Amino acid sequence: MFKKVLTILISSLFIGNIVAWFSGAAPIDFKKVAYSESETEQLQFLKTELEQDHSDTELMLQLGQLYSYHNEIDRADELLSLAYQQDPDNMLVKAAYFSNDGKLAGAMFDPVMGIYKLYRLRYAMSQVDAAAVQANSDFNVRLVRLLTFSFVGEISGHFDRVFEDEDWFNAVIDEDPAALPAEVRQLVYLALANAYWVKGQEDSSEFSIASDYFQKAESLADCPSTLQDACKQLSQMVVTLGKA
User: Fold this and answer.
1) What is the pTM of this model?
2) Average of per-residue pLDDT across 109-137
């Protein structure tokens, strides 16, 4: 039972950090995110379980996602790449692997002025998108895509997918809000708030939509540790709009 709960929790909390995933040739520093007490317990549990069964793809996925969530992207890659090799038809494994590979692309040094980094990032993002298209109505896979593309932004090459997912997630939430934990609904709203904040850089009218989503997110739970910068940025936007 505990293992199944972990699967749902960690799959749902696979989120990207508010950093530029692409910035030319220079490596991006994905700063490590500290583990909470409960996450430390999850980490130890998963490591112990995996030691007992080295071939369990689900455990590799969970532990790999947890590492990626905390920006231990090389450790995440070791597990997620193996999980993907073992089960390439698992769309959540595929989405998780290539989402983390997008971070690896950002973290690398590119001697050809960022050209290869951009190619690698775009390829990884196309695979995340392909996984979500094939999975279609799988909540967790679409959540990985939503969060990934929202925080990678236009450079992903698939930013418009965020707004397709917006309609899909809002329909799911409206149908039965109580069916989803508040923390999961919050992630959806934060991703959408950030996406409209990105759009607002070109059309300031989009900021009001970003503000609405952020205030919904803020009412549900404390801001996740990996999205503190995003929450501060969005909070300042709300204050600025209030003064306008």
Assistant:
1) 0.85
2) 88
